[in-house]
């Protein structure tokens, strides 16, 4: 206390103390400068994102890339379609139907109406319904008789009424199927298919003309579908010398098939070639990711999402999710398909919808990886993006030949002291420097008795937060924008936010703006937010 009074009472003493402390400071700085051979250097931690696309194109059997050689089709024995009425006992007909779609179906309902139309071409016709049924499923079969006597009696009655008769009677056998189907994605397909052939009768013969089977195709909202129908007949015969069988059928009896050969390995092509979509069966692709750092990594996690964008340059573009957002930890490889057939269906559907078609389309496969890694110098929280571009033309497909990519960055720094020089030991100079600084600080406080300018409560809280949670915070110039699907949860304290960060192993993002400090954590569509107003 006496020393303080003497110091406060003597201006000369105060000046002398300041001069001595200043001289000690100058001497310590000069001595320390000579004792250090090189200045202290700040070395940041360096890290790197590495990504690699890869794909394999699987082919259908082809002449171009395989040993497949087309063989001449054996001519099937023609089944007679002319029958002699004197030896016919009865005629039975059947109709088989099958419905196929490019997308899986959840429910299919078919209403079938089979009718016989008797006609005198250009004069009259009479339609008679033979059956009307409803069947569920993608395929069904119906049987019905062809009663020649009854049909010819109807024709005879009509000819007697109108006074016009012929020696040849014409009957059209027609099957109309009305199909209503619902796909697994909830889309509805509704269409009608018609199949027919002609039966011609005379006093001695029955002749069947026309194709007994047929198919009709259609499309709706990018879904392709096909209805296949087939008539079959069985003509039962009386005992006769002409045929060695008692029934003539439209289908030849089955023959034993040779044992199946083991399936050959699928033909494949590697990256960087010219591909032909017509002979592509499927494309299996993968994306590999690695995060490297020259400092130890205590924790790291990744979120990866893969999308495909189809573009008609200058006209339109459509984005599709190939792999939804998936959590990974450390280096990983994720597999996914490149469905060229589906992309073609989307292109056709959009072109039909808007009336604008293109001969060349761009396909971009994009991988977005958000990496959060904790090092001894701070947190890394970045999104790494890599793309694989392709070009789909009318009959060809190509991809970029460059499949790998990388992105470098740095964070924090590590102090590396220089080697000792000719100045010798640095310890005395460091001690003198510390004493001089303490003395000047004390003398300055005592002399001026400065009062710190008042600091706002918000700034004080922000300063305490930075000091307390420095290792968990990452300063950013601007926080990521709030997505439309993102949920924002405001919190009442920074301590609550830090506890959540510890639980989720996530960094706390900090943005300093004029008048406010914002702290947030983003996790799978949820944003936890705490704001300090200054």
Helix percent reads: 10-25%
The unreliable regions are 419-423
> Biggest sheet, in brief?
6 strands, antiparallel
Q: Number of helix segments? A: 7
Oligomer: single chain
Beginning-to-end CA distance, first to last residue = 41 Å
Main sheet: which strands, in order across? 2-9-8-7-4-5
Structure description:
There is one protein chain. The protein contains 7 helices and 26 strands. It has helices spanning 2-9, 11-35, 148-162, 340-354, 427-448, 457-468, 494-504, and strands at 41-59, 82-84, 88-101, 105-120, 124-136, 139-145, 169-183, 188-201, 205-209, 213-220, 223-237, 247-249, 267-269, 280-293, 297-312, 316-328, 332-337, 360-375, 378-393, 397-399, 404-416, 473-475, 487-490, 508-513, 516-523, 526-533. The protein has a 6-stranded antiparallel β-sheet, with helices on one face. Strands 1, 13, 14, 17 and 21 form a 5-stranded antiparallel β-sheet that branches. Strand 15 and strand 16 (316-328) form a beta hairpin. Helix 2 (11-35) runs antiparallel to helix 5. The relative contact order is 0.15. Residues 419-423 have low confidence and may be disordered.
Keyword list:
alpha+beta, 26 strands, five-stranded antiparallel β-sheet, six-stranded antiparallel β-sheet, single chain, elongated, 534 residues
């Amino acid at each position: 206390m006496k020393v303080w009074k003497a110091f406060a009472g003597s201006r000369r003493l105060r000046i002398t103390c300041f001069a001595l402390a200043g001289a000690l400071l100058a001497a310590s700085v000069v001595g320390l400068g000579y004792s250090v051979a090189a200045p202290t250097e700040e070395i940041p931690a360096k890290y790197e994102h590495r990504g690699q696309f890869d794909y394999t194109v699987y082919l259908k059997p082809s002449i171009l890339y395989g040993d497949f050689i087309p063989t001449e089709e054996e001519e099937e024995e023609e089944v007679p379609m002319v029958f002699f009425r004197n030896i016919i006992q009865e005629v039975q007909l059947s109709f088989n139907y099958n419905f196929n779609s490019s997308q899986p179906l959840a429910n299919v309902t078919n209403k079938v109406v089979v009718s016989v139309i008797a006609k005198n071409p250009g004069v009259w016709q009479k339609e008679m319904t033979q059956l009307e049924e409803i069947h569920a499923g993608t395929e069904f079969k119906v049987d019905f008789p062809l009663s020649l006597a009854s049909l010819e009696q109807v024709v005879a009655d009509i000819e007697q009424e109108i006074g016009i008769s012929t020696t040849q009677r014409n009957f059209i056998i027609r099957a109309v199927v009305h199909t209503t189907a619902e796909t697994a994605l909830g889309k509805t397909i509704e269409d009608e298919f018609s199949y027919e052939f002609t039966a011609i009768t005379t006093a001695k013969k029955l002749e069947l003309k026309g194709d007994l089977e047929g198919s009709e195709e259609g499309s709706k909202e990018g879904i392709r579908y096909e209805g296949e129908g087939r008539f079959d007949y069985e003509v039962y015969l009386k005992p006769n010398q002409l045929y060695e069988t008692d029934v003539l059928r439209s289908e030849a009896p089955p023959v034993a098939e040779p044992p199946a050969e083991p399936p050959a390995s699928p033909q494949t092509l590697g990256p960087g070639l010219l591909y032909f979509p017509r002979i592509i069966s499927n494309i299996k692709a993968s994306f590999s990711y690695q995060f490297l750092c020259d400092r130890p990594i205590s924790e790291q996690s990744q979120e990866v999402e893969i999308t495909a964008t189809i573009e008609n340059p200058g006209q339109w573009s459509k984005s599709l999710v190939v792999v939804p957002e998936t959590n990974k930890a450390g280096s990983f490889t994720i597999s996914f398909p490149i469905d060229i057939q589906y992309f073609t269906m989307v292109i056709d559907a959009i072109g039909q919808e808007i009336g604008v078609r293109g001969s060349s389309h761009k396909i971009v496969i994009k991988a977005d990886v958000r990496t959060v890694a904790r090092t001894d110098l701070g947190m890394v929280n970045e999104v790494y993006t890599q793309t694989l571009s392709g070009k789909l033309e009318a009959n060809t497909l190509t991809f970029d030949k460059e499949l790998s990519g990388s992105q470098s960055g740095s964070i924090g720094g590590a102090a590396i002291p220089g080697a000792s020089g000719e100045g010798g030991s640095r310890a005395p100079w460091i001690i003198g420097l510390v004493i001089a600084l303490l003395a000047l600080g004390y003398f300055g406080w005592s002399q001026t008795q400065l009062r710190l300018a008042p600091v706002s409560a918000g700034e004080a809280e922000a300063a305490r937060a930075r000091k307390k949670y420095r290792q968990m915070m990452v300063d950013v110039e601007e926080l990521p924008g709030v997505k439309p699907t993102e949920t924002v949860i405001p919190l009442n304290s920074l301590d609550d936010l830090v506890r959540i960060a510890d639980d989720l192993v996530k960094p706390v993002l900090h943005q300093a703006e004029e008048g406010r400090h914002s702290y947030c954590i983003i996790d799978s569509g949820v944003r936890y937010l705490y704001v300090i107003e200054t």
